[in-house]
Amino acid sequence: MNDQENIKRIKVGSAVNDLVHLLSAEMLTMKKEIEELKDEVKLNQLRHEDEIKDAYDNIKLLKNQTQILIMEMKESRKHRKEDKIHIDERTRRITNN
Question: In the chain, which end has fewer C-beta atoms inside a 10 angstrom radius, N or C?
């Protein structure tokens, strides 16, 4: 082999070596970006799970408040009926006298 062939071989080998290094660096960058995206997805899933839990907690709270209001309304109706009965009794007594 002559010197020019050796120089050519060294240049080609050097170029291949540079490309391998570039590709390796790109792959490492891509791997890092993929890991960051995975972390972001996990974080979004956790946020979503927290939001759903909060929504269910709010629904439970509203359901309990609604049940309390219904009980209070029933109690109020009961008292109104009792009051009406008392008023009717007083009216009867007054009209009978």
Answer: C
**Count of CB atoms situated within 10 Å of the CB of 92:** 10
What distances in angstroms separate CA 6 from CA 3, 12, 61, 92, one per listed residue? Answer: 5, 10, 82, 127
Q: What tokens were used for 79?
A: 């008292």
Give the pLDDT confidence score for residue 84 in this predicted structure: 79
Output the DSSP codes for 52-67.
Answer: HHHHHHHHHHHHHHHH
Q: Give the pair of three-digit tokens for residue 46.
A: 């956790």
Q: What is the dihedral of CA 32, 37, 38, 42, to 10 degrees?
A: 140
Q: What is the DSSP string of the chain?
A: --HHHHHHHHHHHHHHHHHHHHHHHHHHHHHHHHHHHHHHHHHHHHHHHHHHHHHHHHHHHHHHHHHHHHHHHHHHHHHHHHHHHHHHHHHHHHHH-
Structure tokens at 43: 């974080």
